[in-house]
Amino acid sequence: MINEIKTKRLNTFKKRLLELEIDAAVLVLSRDIFYYTGTAQPCILVVTQDDYFLIVRRALDFVLRETWINKSKILDNGGFKDVLIKLKEMGINKGKLGLELDVIPADMFLKIMNIFAGFEPVNISEEIIMQRMKKDQEEIGLIRTACKIMNAGHRRVLEVLSGGMTELELAAEVECAHRKAGHEGVLSMRNFDFYISRGPLSSGENLFKVSGFSNTITGTGLSPAVPAGPSLRKINPGDTVIVDIPTCHRGYHCDETRTYVLGRAGAEVADLFKSLREISDNVIGFLKDGVKCSEVFGIAHSCARRLGVEDYFLGLAPRKGNFVGHGIGLDANEPPILFEKSDFVLRSDFVVTIEIHLTHPEHGAVKLEDMVLINERGCEILSVTERELFVV
Prior knowledge:
The chain has two domains: 2-131, Creatinase/prolidase N-terminal domain (Creatine Amidinohydrolase, Chain A, domain 1), CATH 3.40.350; 134-391, Creatine Amidinohydrolase (Alpha-Beta Complex). Helices cover 35% and strands 21% of the residues. It contains ten helices and 17 strands. The strands form four sheets. A six-stranded mixed beta sheet has the order 4-3-2-1-5-6, with helices on both faces. A five-stranded antiparallel beta sheet has the order 13-12-14-15-16. A four-stranded mixed beta sheet has the order 7-8-11-17, sandwiched between helices. The chain is elongated. The relative contact order is 0.11. The model has no long low-confidence stretch (mean pLDDT 95).
């Protein structure tokens, strides 16, 4: 039954190629190949309007153990020239060639087009991403487990957070707890030249320092070489600490943020978090099949205005954020992005984060990010960790 569900992914993709009049798609990105075949080994997946085959570049023994596709569709030890030979055997000598143009390097593109001289390149990435947005039951189950792994990290913060430890030391404790609970240790992002530590962790005055990597709480990192994530800053009594370190289970991610205070939370921070929680609750209560991303953003913004925290909503001017969440799955951050001006419609079986922060110019920042599964009735919060301001 599970293999039938997974084979359906390829059949859905084939049907879409037919509708778009694309003669063949050649996929090389490991996340896409894993989605369609169950293996992330170095391969080339070729899909036509009525067939498919997988060329294995290395580690055939791994592929045969891992994949659910028919072994008759697997070819060993080949490259792009072998793809062209196989397509010609299938009667495909020219036409539209779908490529993952958002991620393949320019030199690979030039190499492919030199070999496929009679073909017209078209970007197939959007179709793959659109298909990946809607999660099947196995994918949802894996994400649920990633959320449980995430909870082990937050529990560890409650056990070890103390004055004098550095952000890096706290991050290491969180990451170790994640790993022991089954985290695969990767953070996959479909972005050119994106690199970060295992995830943002920030405290005290660092909460005001937002790296250009993202319009959210980023941390400052250890050096300009990787300017985001935990630093060597020592955490002091009274500091607010934001922990946003993703987890990954069998390829599927959890991205969740919780806010901590060491010692005692001041009334101003407690009130700020109370407003944050109300904004988040309003947004989650609004989520359901058929709502637009811009509508979700509008609910958050109008609630912030009503509560009198609009000036702090998604950061301080001029570095305010313009989204309140994003899709998640095989990448930690993937479409749909819940942008202020996006009319993209959310659908059942999408898994998204609701990611909101408030930054006060004197009292610092608080952040709450939850994993949410959208359904026809509304939504389900997948996050396991309590949605509270933790005082340690």
